[in-house]
Amino acid sequence: MSHDHEHDHTEPPSDLELRVKALETLLLEKGLVRSDTLDAIIETYEHRVGPRNGAHVVALAWSNDEFRRALLADATAVVSELGYVGRQGEHLQVVENTAEQHNLVVCTLCSCYPWTVLGLPPVWYKSAPYRARAVSEPRSVLAEFGTHLPESTQIRVWDSTAELRYLVLPERPRGTDDWSVEQLQKLVTRNAMIGVERARMPEDLLERDP
Questions:
Q1: Which of 35, 63, 80, 107 is catalytic?
Q2: 105, β-bridge pairs
Q3: What is the pLDDT of residue 45?
Q4: Residues 2, 35, 111, 140: which is the catalytic one?
Q5: Per-residue pLDDT tens digits for 155-196
Q6: Of the listed 2, 14, 63, 112, which one is catalytic?
Q7: What pLDDT was estimated at residue 2?
Q8: What is the pTM of this model?
């Protein structure tokens, strides 16, 4: 499995996009789905029920120690109280990254994934190479995403199932002590909540918005 670090790892390949578009066209032509219904579903999972929900959860945990402790103790209940409920997210556990331990999420059997807080799973998460190598050689997989950890940092791999799904709480970036929840959310990416990358640094935002 190789990755070009100049592009977004969560972006589907162009051939897949074409296949999805062809399927969408066929469903519409056959009258099996209405265009406004399809648009609503896409809007829901890409934006309202997408990684923005997870980013909000992470930013709240960074900002409020009481919330963070409650989240680590019972993520399902805490996330439900925020209104982030639905299929693929009924049973959730949050695992926290520290200097001593880095967490990585995979589903070795299929592609179990907490849609309610992360949106639709990226293509690479469902691929056989990632599912196999995340377990057998996690440090190499992380390196391919540009995440290089000290040898002293333990890597723990969490295997999602239909009964239990995981969300990684990344380490809070330095220099953000006085940041608001809204500002912190901009540092949280889907890849960081899966564990293949760290959260963005404040300077990364400056590079994106000169």
A1: 107
A2: 158
A3: 59
A4: 111
A5: 999 999 988 999 999 999 999 999 999 999 999 999 999 999
A6: 112
A7: 44
A8: 0.78
Report the C-alpha gap between 112 and 123 in whole angstroms: 13
180 among known catalytic residues: no
Give the model confidence (pLDDT) of 2-54 as tens digits: 444 433 444 444 454 555 566 667 677 777 667 776 666 666 655 555 689 99
Q: Is 136 a catalytic residue?
A: no
**What is the rounded distance in angstroms from the CA atom of residue 185 to the CA atom of residue 19?**
32
Half-sphere exposure of 96 (CA within 13 A, CB side): 16
How do beta strands 101-106 and 154-159 pair? parallel
Domains of the chain: 11-48 (no CATH), 51-208 (3.90.330.10)
The answer for residues whose C-beta is within 8 angstroms of residue 141's C-beta and 6 or more apart is: 1, 104, 130, 133, 134, 196
Q: How far is CA 27 from CA 125, 152, 207, in A?
A: 26, 52, 41
Catalytic option among 14, 35, 80, 110: 110
List Cα–Cα distances, 102 to 24, 53, 78, in angstroms: 39, 22, 23
